[in-house]
Design goal:
Layout lengths: L5 E2 L4 H6 L21 H17 L4 H11 L8 E6 L5 H13 L3 E7 L2 H11 L5 E5 L12 E7 L7 H14 E10 L3 H14 L3 H13 L3 H10 L5 E6 L4 E6 L1
Parallel strand pairs: 1-7, 2-3, 2-5, 3-4, 5-6
Antiparallel strand pairs: 6-8, 7-8
Helix pairs in contact: 7-8
Length: 253
């Protein structure tokens, strides 16, 4: 059975006062980010996403969870990470730079179905051998079992309806030797308000203004993520929420 460790910032009554009550999930919705974009739109849209991830836990929370999975100390070989839905590899390049500063090498496979995003990422990476590029669908990874140490995905889970979400989680579990890290949005009234404010203040493209709040409404609650993970074959799962960052973190195997 999937073990559950869900940390909420407040009790039920206090949560209602703080806007932590859940919203109904908006199933079947389509975001601008789900469709092909013109190159100029894609660049600005991904700039917005990168900015939000830097400011609101998309990078730091995922990296900290990966550190816990990998353990402390120097490693003789690079930690191999698959970043599913990694787009143009902004997180991958951030993670590689962080690893070099810490003296613990990391090699990241950026996996995404969007050729244009991957092409933009290759250009930005400028031949960095620690960032590799794989075009593939989230539900059918072309990697052998336990091919990587850690598999991670950020802001991808909510784009998938339950059957595809289960398939993606199962694919991540299959290829990861140490574990899987899922970073996504928290579907609460507070998260919805915070994201609406953040995208208006920090994002430049109107697509981002639309997609941010819609992403919150499409996100899965912790108990829903637990159900998806159980269906995907996970035996261990820990979920933690960060209400002030509008984030949910799930780590398991």
């Amino acid at each position: 059975m999937v073990g559950r460790a869900i940390a909420w910032a407040a009790g039920r009554d206090a949560g209602r006062c703080l806007g932590l009550s859940a919203l109904p999930r908006l199933a079947g919705a389509v975001e601008h980010g789900d469709r092909a974009m013109a190159a100029s739109d894609l660049a600005t849209y991904l700039d917005d996403l990168e900015r939000l991830n830097r400011w609101f836990g998309g990078y730091r929370f995922t990296a900290a969870a990966m550190d816990r999975l990998a353990g402390d100390g120097a490693a003789p070989t690079p930690l191999v990470v698959a970043d599913l839905g990694g787009a143009r590899g902004d997180f991958a390049r951030w993670l590689v730079r962080r690893a070099r500063r810490r003296g613990r090498p990391v090699r990241v496979l950026v996996v995404d179905r969007d050729h244009a995003a991957l092409a933009a990422g290759r250009e930005r990476a400028d031949g960095d051998a620690d960032v590799l590029w794989v075009q593939a669908d989230a539900t059918a990874l072309p990697l052998r079992a336990r091919a990587v140490d850690v598999a991670t995905t950020s802001l991808t889970l909510h784009h998938l309806e339950p059957p595809a979400a289960v398939a993606m989680l199962g694919a991540l579990r299959r290829v990861a030797r140490l574990g899987v890290v899922v970073n996504d949005l928290l579907r609460t009234r507070l998260a919805y308000l915070l994201v609406r404010i953040a995208v208006r203040a920090l994002c430049r493209h109107p697509f981002s203004h639309d997609d941010g709040p819609l992403s919150v409404l499409r996100a899965y609650l912790p108990r829903e993520i637990e159900e998806l993970a159980r269906a995907a074959g996970f035996s261990r799962l820990a979920i933690r929420t960060y209400p002030l960052f509008a984030r949910t973190m799930a780590v398991g195997s």
